[in-house]
Write a sequence for this structure.
């Protein structure tokens, strides 16, 4: 395994009596895409800010790109790109003025700048809009501009705090395409998200809840970690079907996704008897199969266990 | 370091000139204040409305009224027919002064006896009443002296008082007000622009983005205050030009000294603006805080109300008010032609306050999110 890009050791941050981040221990390999998921208020943004060296940890430590965030915060800042939830753009400046301003702050040499900005505009498809005020861009374009600004100094590590929050699905997909391109260039990406479908695309995922890291694994390993089979069942009346199933023994959890039910099996095998029981009650079961649980299933199960 | 400061300054100017409201603050505030202090508010008392109640109806009484009018201070608006009517005119505020000449006025004059007239004043506006009383008294005494020079001579004291107002011989309030506008405009624009520019970054989330860049707090602070210092200078020059060219106010002292004093004054007001930005979370709060500071600063500057008349506790408080010192400096340079030899105590006090405020504010202006 190569040298980690991000390491945290018992990283803790409290706000008065509230423990926002509780003894976080993490290692993120260089060139990987690490996703941190969890509900709002779970401590994701606090972790991000501490890694970006703009918030002092209460105890413990963190090292980004080999430098301590407490010992050499300024060094860390030069090696990271950070994008907060609100993109941090000047809406009354144009696209190019925004990028230029950040390039100036990072003191990107004039020689390299021209080429680099052209590339950033190119990959984010912002070239035709370079003279437009940032405030006049769509949400997806603002997000890409934010990313371009965070990348203007070619950082080693990219910290993205819920970058796709409130962005339409098409723009989200474009955004992820860009992230994969960046990964190919060897950059390490640390992203927080509330979307679990995004978490599935990460190299490794950490589940964070109430300031604690519940688990940290590859998405596949997380899905297998449940250790119990999961059945997906289609029904024309999923609500009623769930009601019937809840009365059966040996059923762990049930989540409804449209016409689909995800059922965790505790003890017994999911049998045809249950299906016929439902048919008796006038609920049509269109089909069922055993599936690998989604991250969401696992996450809900893990939080319930607490 | 210098290049980063320069780029923040450039960015501030681009934003400033793209924002209509901000542009208005820079250009409209000085013009409005100049208009208000140059034309509208004046403590000069002229054109006092006068009612006369003439029971004598003689050439002598008419001559008195003519003299009142030709002084330029009074305008006869009403001829009252009865004491009740006089009172009514004063009650309604239609006139400020009523002049009553009793029967026998001309006869007394002709016989060389003391002749009496009565002046009634509406004292609700004590300042105007005082001035009107003074003017009326002077005109009437002069009339008396002209009628009976010998009698007047006997009655007059041997020592004659000859008053002359130095620095502002015509006692024009404009000469006093307009230089003060420099102090007010610089304070208001700097407080507003500095605090708003910083708080806005916090509101829209760019402050957090700035903090992850290698920019140092000092660089950010300078980048955020230098533009408004330049605007402060610009306002000062604009108002000085208007004072000289438009309002015929002399500048007897040295302009470079005015620039130096402005620079010292800017230290205090920018520091205060910075301080406001550290205690406000939204632009609205910054706006409120600005006026919470600005209005007492103006009231306790000695501009409208003499500091000597204030209660002692408040007087001590005014020692902390940068406006207090800068007003003395500005007026000293404009009207008295004072130099550093006279103004150094004010300049030293301003410098001390400025350094103190700046030190406190920059300490508060922390880079990290707390």
């Amino acid at each position: 395994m190569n040298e980690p890009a991000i390491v945290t050791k018992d990283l803790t941050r409290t706000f008065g009596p509230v423990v926002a981040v509780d003894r976080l221990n993490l290692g993120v390999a260089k060139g990987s895409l690490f996703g941190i998921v969890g509900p709002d208020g779970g401590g994701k943004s606090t972790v991000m800010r501490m890694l970006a060296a703009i918030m002092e940890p209460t105890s413990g430590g963190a090292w980004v790109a080999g430098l301590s965030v407490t010992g050499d915060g300024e060094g860390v800042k030069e090696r990271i790109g950070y994008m907060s939830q609100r993109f941090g753009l000047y809406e009354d400046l144009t696209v190019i003025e925004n990028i230029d301003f950040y390039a100036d702050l990072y003191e990107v040499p004039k020689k390299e700048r021209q080429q680099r900005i052209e590339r950033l505009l190119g990959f984010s498809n912002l070239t035709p809009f370079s003279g437009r005020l940032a405030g006049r861009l769509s949400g997806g374009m603002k997000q890409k501009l934010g990313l371009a600004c965070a990348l203007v100094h070619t950082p080693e590590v990219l910290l993205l705090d819920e970058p796709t929050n409130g962005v339409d699905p098409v723009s989200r997909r474009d955004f992820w395409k860009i992230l994969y391109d960046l990964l190919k260039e060897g950059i390490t990406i640390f992203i927080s998200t509330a979307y679990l479908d995004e978490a599935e695309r990460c190299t490794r995922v950490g589940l964070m809840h109430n300031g604690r890291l519940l688990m940290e694994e590859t998405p596949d390993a997380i899905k297998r970690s449940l250790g119990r089979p999961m059945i997906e069942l289609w029904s024309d009346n999923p609500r009623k079907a769930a009601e019937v199933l809840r009365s059966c023994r040996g059923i762990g959890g049930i989540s409804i996704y449209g016409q689909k039910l995800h059922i965790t099996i505790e003890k017994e095998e999911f049998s045809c008897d249950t299906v016929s029981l439902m048919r008796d009650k006038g609920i049509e079961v269109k089909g069922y199969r055993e599936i690998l649980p989604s991250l969401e299933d696992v996450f809900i199960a893990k939080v319930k266990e607490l | 370091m210098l290049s980063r400061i320069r780029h923040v300054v450039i960015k501030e100017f681009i934003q400033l000139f793209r924002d209509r409201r901000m542009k208005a603050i820079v250009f409209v505030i000085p013009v409005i204040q100049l208009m208000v202090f140059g034309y509208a508010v004046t403590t000069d008392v002229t054109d006092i409305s006068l009612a006369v109640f003439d029971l004598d109806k003689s050439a002598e009484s008419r001559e008195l009224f003519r003299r009142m009018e030709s002084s330029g201070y009074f305008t006869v608006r009403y001829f009252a027919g009865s004491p009740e009517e006089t009172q009514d005119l004063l009650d309604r505020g239609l006139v400020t002064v009523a002049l009553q000449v009793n029967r026998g006025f001309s006869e007394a004059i002709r016989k060389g006896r003391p002749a009496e007239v009565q002046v009634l004043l509406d004292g609700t506006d004590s300042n105007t009443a005082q001035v009107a009383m003074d003017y009326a008294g002077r005109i009437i005494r002069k009339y008396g002296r002209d009628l009976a020079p010998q009698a007047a001579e006997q009655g007059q004291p041997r020592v004659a008082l000859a008053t002359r107002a130095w620095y502002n011989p015509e006692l024009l309030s404009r000469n006093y007000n307009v230089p003060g506008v420099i102090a007010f405009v610089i304070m208001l624009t700097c407080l507003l622009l500095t605090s708003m520019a910083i708080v806005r970054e916090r509101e829209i989330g760019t402050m957090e983005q700035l903090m992850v860049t290698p920019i140092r707090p000092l660089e950010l602070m300078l980048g955020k205050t230098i533009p408004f210092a330049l605007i402060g200078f610009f306002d000062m020059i604009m108002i000085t030009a208007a004072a000289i060219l438009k309002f015929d106010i002399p500048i007897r002292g040295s302009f470079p000294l005015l620039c130096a004093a402005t620079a010292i004054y800017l230290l205090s007001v920018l520091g205060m603006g910075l301080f406001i930005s550290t205690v406000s979370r939204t632009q609205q709060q910054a706006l409120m805080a600005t006026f919470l500071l600005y209005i007492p600063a103006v009231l306790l500057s000695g501009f409208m109300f003499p500091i000597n008349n204030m209660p002692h506790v408040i007087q001590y408080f005014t020692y902390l008010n940068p406006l207090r010192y800068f007003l003395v400096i500005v007026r000293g340079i404009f009207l008295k032609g004072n130099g550093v030899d006279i103004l150094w105590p004010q300049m030293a006090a301003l410098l001390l306050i400025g350094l103190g405020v700046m030190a406190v504010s920059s300490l508060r202006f922390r880079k990290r999110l707390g």
